[in-house]
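Renewal narrative, Specific Aim 1. Our central claim is that a sequence can be written position by position from structural information alone. The example that follows is taken directly from our test logs and has not been curated for this report. It begins with the structure tokens describing the chain, in the order in which they were read.
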């Protein structure tokens, strides 16, 4: 990303400290970022926060999203329910880079109870700076889009 596309970020209570660090880091880099909570350590339900970022990415009101919960697993499950969202749970620089180059991941998911803060910030920066390779990977993403389209069509109630 060139710094112009907006990022939405959210976490549950288990990811709030890391989220706040990431927000500060991104603001310091001049990256527009919309913080959708949570804002303290009070226990919350991760789907309530995951859906806000995933919906914004799915509807195109932001370019990309970042989600954090304890493991990153719950947020990944939520985010990947949304059409057009390709959420990637990354725990190192390799998966962060390849999630962009091969999967064109538009949501980065992190585990606040898994990652050490400095590594998490490096992952975020690598993920934001890496582009999509296209080519054979674009063909594979088109197949995922086709799956989504078929699933949507199957949900249309009969007789309508
Ligand atoms: C909250 O305790 C924890 O379950 C949540 O942050 C996340 O790890 C779920 O996948």
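The sequence written for that structure reads:
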């Amino acid at each position: 990303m060139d710094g112009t596309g907006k990022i939405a970020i959210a976490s549950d209570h288990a990811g709030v400290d890391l989220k706040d660090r990431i927000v500060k880091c991104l603001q310091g880099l001049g990256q527009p970022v919309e913080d959708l909570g949570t804002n303290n350590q009070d226990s919350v339900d991760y789907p309530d926060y995951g859906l806000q970022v995933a919906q914004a990415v799915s509807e195109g009101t932001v370019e990309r999203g970042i989600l954090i919960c304890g493991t990153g697993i719950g947020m990944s499950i939520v985010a990947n329910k949304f059409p057009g969202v390709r959420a990637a749970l990354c725990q190192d620089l390799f998966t962060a880079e390849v999630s962009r180059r091969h999967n064109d991941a538009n949501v980065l998911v992190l585990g606040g109870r898994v990652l050490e803060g400095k590594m998490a910030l490096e992952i975020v920066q690598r993920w934001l700076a890496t582009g999509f390779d296209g080519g054979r990977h674009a063909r594979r993403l088109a197949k995922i889009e086709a799956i989504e389209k078929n699933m949507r069509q199957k949900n249309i109630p009969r007789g309508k």
